[in-house]
Amino acid sequence: MAENKVVTRFAPSPTGHFHVGGIRSALFNFLFARQNKGTYILRSEDTDKERSKREYEDEFLELFDWLNLKYDMFFRQSDRLEIHQKYIKKMMDEGFAYLSKETPTEEGQREEVIRFKNPNKKITFKDLVLEEITVDTTDLGDFIIARDINEPLYHLTVVIDDFEMGVTHVIRGQEHAPNTARQILIQEAIGAPRPIYAHLPLILNKERAKLSKRDESVLPAIEYKKLGYLPDALLNFMALNGWNPGGEQEIFNLPELVEKFDISKVQKGGGIFNPEKLDWLNKEHIKLLPKEEIEKNILEWLPENMQNEIGKKMVPVILERINKWGDVKEMAERGELDLYFHPPQFSKEKLIFKNVPAEKIKENLKLAISELEKLDEKNFTVENIKDTLMKIADKLESRGELLHPVRFALSGKDQSPDPFTIASIIGKNETLSRLQKAI
How far apart are the C-alpha atoms of 271 and 119, rounded to whole Å? Predict the structure, then answer.
C-alpha cells in the first residue's frame, strides 16, 4: 500500500443473517476511504468453521451490491490460513505465545491451546470518537489466540490481516472497544503499526437498550431490500444514527454523504433505531425519483392483473399512501385497490346523505349522469369531472347531497379517495354504469 494512504476495512462474520446495524459500520468505513481517496476492503471473517456458511456471505455481498457500497478488494479469511500459521509459529519461536496444557472442565474442551503471553502492562490508545482510553491488560490474563496451529481465533487473525492489508483506520462499533487492548498487544508482538481507532456509538432500540437481532422492530438487513426500501434511504437513515452533520439538511444520497461525512462529528451517545423515521426518509427519497421510475416501480409491485392502464392511472393515488414499494403490494393484498377494477357492493342506505330523501338523492345522481355524459372520454380528467360535479353541487343546499352518494356509488367504501379521482381512473363508461346502478 502507498505510504500514508488511508485504508479501511469492514469485516463481517458469515455466521448468521447480516444485522442491519452492521450497515452503518460498513458505510462509515466506505465514506472515510472515499473521502480520503483511499482503499476500502471487505473481508469475510469466516474462521468459525462450524457456524460460518457461504449462504450468509452471499447474503451480505448481495446487500452491499444493492447499497452500492463498492469495495476495492475482497478477502476471505479462511483463504489466508498459511499466513496466520506463519505468524503463530513466529510468535511461539519468539516467546510471545506458547502451547498451553489445559484441564478440560466441560465436554469438548481441548487439552491444548495456544495462548498469548501477556506482558501485563497498561495500554493507552486514542480513539477518534471516545478520545483517550487506558486499559490494564493484567486483567486479561494469557488469553487464547488459537485452538491449534490450524484454528487461529478472531483476535489474532484480525490483527494479522489488518497488518498485511495495510489498514490505517479501524472504524467499528463500540461493542468492539474492549477487544482493542488485546489486539494492540498482538500488534506489538508481531511488529505491526497501531492503526487509528474510531469506535462508533451503539445503536439503540426505542427502550434505549442496545439493538439486538431479537428486537421485533428490526429485520435482517437484506429484508429491507425485499420490502422495497430504496438503498439511498437506508444508507441515509443509518448515517444519521450517531452522526450529525449539522445544519438543516436531512436528506442525503450516497455522493452527498461522501462529501459531507465528518468522523469528528460522530457522537459518543447511542442513536435510536426508529422505523418510523426510516419510512419518512424513504418516502422523501421516493419523491425525488423521476415520474417514470415511480410509475415503473409501483406497477412492478402491483399484481399482474393490475399492471394495465387502470394501474397507471392509480399511480398518483398509490404514491400518496405509501412509504416504500412493498406498501403497494400490501394495499393490493388488503383489497384497497379492488374498487378500481370491480363494481362495489353496498346497501342502498349508504347512499343517503344525512336526512336527504331518497328521491332527492336520485334526482341529484341523474343530474350528475346527464352532465358527465357530455364529457368526451379523452376529457374525462380529474379537473373536468370536478368542475362538472361542483357546478351541480354548488346549487344544492349542501354539496354532500351529491358528492356523498357519488363517492359511495363509485367506491362502496366509508373511506376512499375523492369521487373525481376515482371517476378519472375507472373511466367514463364505468363511472356512468356505477351511478346508474346507484339510482
Answer: 37
